[in-house]
Fold these 2 entries.
Entry 1:
Amino acid sequence: MQLETYISDLLYRYDCVTIPEFGAFLTQRLSAKIHESTHTFYPPKKALSFNEQLQQNDGLLANYIAEVEKIPYTTALIKVSKQVKSIKSLLAEGETIQLENIGELVLNADEKTQFSPSNSINYLTDAFGLSHFTSSDVNREIYKETVEAIEDVTPIVLTPEKRSNRNWLKYAAAAVLFLGVGGFVATAYYNNSIESHNQLAQEEANEQLDAKVQEATFVISNPLPAATLSLEKQSGNYHIVAGAFRVEANSERKVKQLRDKGFKARKIGMNRYGLHEVVYASFETREDAQRELYKVRREHNRDAWLLIKKLD
């Protein structure tokens, strides 16, 4: 059993995942930051830590394993206990435990478990797809002093141009006035002619339309064919769970709400606890389901989770 795989899945949805009789992995949200010396921009993330004091079983890990592997809860709890004993034995021998996408565990000189988190994955679904990047320095050049120095050496002097004869301006103004009045009169005449022509054409068109309506007989000789509605049947063993409900009417109401939002929601039956399960959609492959799960967590419900279940 790959215990780190189940822990990693739960860390996307929960801030605390407890391993009974061993400890708990905790997450804390950190804001985006900028490294001043390297000019590197880091996106927001969940910082991962380990607390050896939290060993009380809360049922979260064992329940998830039981659902995924389709085994009883007690059997899942026994498998977790065996894995914990193996990890403790290796740590006592001085081994370093590598948990993929989580980090490293090792015993220090005081026989305490020391944890070094991995930086290969960001468990904050809001920051999915974001990575750090480095920006170069922005150099701002100042030209003010250079301009002032040029002005001191070569001052700019504006000299108005002299005109000896301005009589031609009078004739030009008179010509412009004459052309403006003539153009206004011609435009008014043209607009009036166009308006009269359009009015006559509209009246003629209305008379023809009235005649056609009076003579028309409405017979539907070629009725439209009957509409055929094809429904896409949901299939696949990978389901994105929206919730489980004790009352069936509540599950049907949840399905309607999700379908109104564009999801291919449906009920997939009752689980081992007698709850009616509602899913956003079902998929044939784990990759497609995981891709849609990230989208649902980011845009709709951060508590949605993946269920692997073969339906009858």
Entry 2:
Amino acid sequence: MNYPGMTLWFTGLSGAGKTTIALGVLHEIKARNYRVEMLDGDAIRCHLSKGLGFSKEDRDTNIRRIGFVASLLSRNGVVVIVAAISPYREIRDEIRCNTTNFVEVYVKAPLEVCEARDVKGLYAKARAGKIHNFTGIDDPYEAPLNPEIICYTDSETVEESVAKVITALEKRAYIFTPQNSAVDTN
């Protein structure tokens, strides 16, 4: 059976939980036999956007590239999951306008929580001046104004956030609840 594709765009600060929740959603959607791909911001920077820096212009170029690939895949019936900081509202809104079936998920966590989760030590390096243009420290993060879904990762478990996303996608008929395969014996 063919289903319309869609783009599920996770945005939030580094360490908010975008990739963790996106992977949980990916596994749930894949288990329902949908065609699904994940575009992770870190992986895209290593391959498709290699050589780009962290200026606003370079960040916008990176997000446009991710958005272009997501749009190509989704218009061909793939559920595309994007997990990228994508700090600027204007470029996210541009991607939304150019993408059919776009759902924005704001993975929200206070900066201090993200810093406490930072296993790579990037926030500490940014605060020490060793990394420049770091989102949330010396470069802005512009939170979405009207995301379809908000995951509050400082107060929700990963499982609760994944379930929230899956439920929202079911309510919008982007994915469907699996049918019970048990045979009715009545």
